[in-house]
Amino acid sequence: MDEKTLNELKSRLIYLRNEIQQRIKDNNDRVRSFESGDEGDFSNSISYKDLTYNLIEKDRTQLIEIEEALYRMENNTYAICERCKEPIEIERLKAKPTAKYCAKCKHIIESHS
Ligand SMILES: [Zn+2]
Fold first, then answer.
1. Class of domain 3-112
2. Ligand 1 centroid vs 56 CA: distance in angstroms?
3. For residue 85, how far is its CA from the centre of ligand 1 (angstroms)?
4. Where is the Zinc finger DksA/TraR C4-type domain (predicted)?
5. Can you tell me the distance from the alpha carbon of 28 to that of 22, in angstroms, rounded to the nearest whole number?
6. C-alpha 57 to ligand 1 mean position (Å)
7. Integer Cα distance of 96 and 45 in angstroms
8. C-alpha 80 – ligand 1 centre gap (Å)
9. What is the pLDDT of residues 33-65, one digit of tens each?
10. 48 to 19, 27, 38, 42, 59: CA distances (angstroms)
11. 80 with 86: CB under 8 angstroms?
12. CB 57 within 8 Å of CB 21
């Protein structure tokens, strides 16, 4: 992968990381406001709270994937498939910068799960 593409992907990952960190913070604030009981109907608050927790969990998982991708960039193992050790398709990384597997391995892994 050329340096320009790598830098583009890196800045996108950093941008995404900031965005997600902000969203987790907002959602945590929201959970706290539910807990303070100012949100009207209590039963509604509970389901919104669960929903918000789910969002936070999803964001945390994504945040870990981003951290791992940035770590791989630092260690020059980025864009190498973790399964077959072949380079991951650039187009695939542009669509999903946190991809760990090439398209072929991804397909194999998904068809087995
Ligand atoms: Zn592979």
1. mainly alpha
2. 30
3. 6
4. 77-110
5. 10
6. 28
7. 34
8. 8
9. 877 766 555 556 678 889 999 999 999 999 999
10. 21, 11, 13, 10, 16
11. yes
12. no
